[in-house]
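--- STAGE predict ---
source: upstream dedup step, 1 unique chain passed
mode: sequence only
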Amino acid sequence: MGVYANSVSFAQYRVIGELPSRQERFAVFSAALSGRRFNSIEESAEEQSEGWTCTDTPDDPAFDLPSRFWRDRYLFFSCRRDQRRIPAALFKSHIGRAEGEYLAKRPELKRPPKREREEIAERVKLGLLTRVLPTPATVDLVWQPETALLTLFSASSTAMERFEELFCKSFENLRPQLIYPYRRAVGLLDAEGQERLATLNLAASEAALDEIQSNRWLGEEFLLWLLQAGLEGGNFRVQVAGTYDQGTPFSAWIDDRIQLQGGGETGPQKVAVSGSQDSYLEARSALKSGKTISNAAIYLEKDELQWRFVLNAELFTFGAFKCPPVKLEREGVEELSERESAFYERMYLLEAGLQMFDSLYLAFLTERIGAGWAERQQQISAWLEGYGA
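--- STAGE serialize ---
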């Protein structure tokens, strides 16, 4: 799924490092992408190939013109990986035939020697690879150099790792840093808020893995806070810059899907709650037993427009992010122009949803690091016990 899809999953990164000057950016970015561009393996026996390609023309990865990968303030391209896969049963069957032919010529042997078996397996593999077409997989990304924000349209840990490795190899002196809960909080708070948050930071270093694992409480408490706040009306206002004006009202709540987890004598235990909720009785029971919310479906609503996504509490990756539908007039519109219009419309709606999400997260952070958090905790505890439900 890519940026054009009605439902997308994505992770967001902050690109760290010094960018080239505005005058040099096209030449630098073009050279970086071309240097690691995707090369087809359809006419070869290679097992896999990976590199950058143009999102609108994935079979023609030419980064020679700005229009191929640049749209207004966005860099827009894809990471493509083609791989040939031989079914295990087929591979085993062909090896058995080849070994049988080998032994038929050598009746004195009961089985081929180890070295011969390895050579037979390699020959069989090579022969099958030439007959199997590679399966393509592409992951779109949108990068805004001015804000250093990069959105990778996949929440798969494997895809994220491959992207990070390829990006670092391609762009010298630049590296992508995942915007996980603690980093997102730092980016939203002012200097005073950052100092208060730092006193709650449980990480022993600034290493990303340490900050993620040591501060899992941030995402978990945020989802618990929203779960209870949604029952109180779920009314919030835009607090960060973006598509909508400051103070614009919107609604937010959790529904449909809640996954909780906690430790047990036999290992981690998970509880999934699905379907439309009323008082969240099943979720509250799990929370009272010591479990925490690991991911949940969040709804955002403004006027008649609605956004829905599943938030991962540990990493703040967004799954099945669904914006209001994009409607385009197709009559008399060229295909490329239509795709450009769809791109800008999708980015507008995506950024509007994320602006509301950041405002929601900032509302939680302001309360969490403020003097009134103890009172809020008492309210949440009373709600979990069933008082005022």
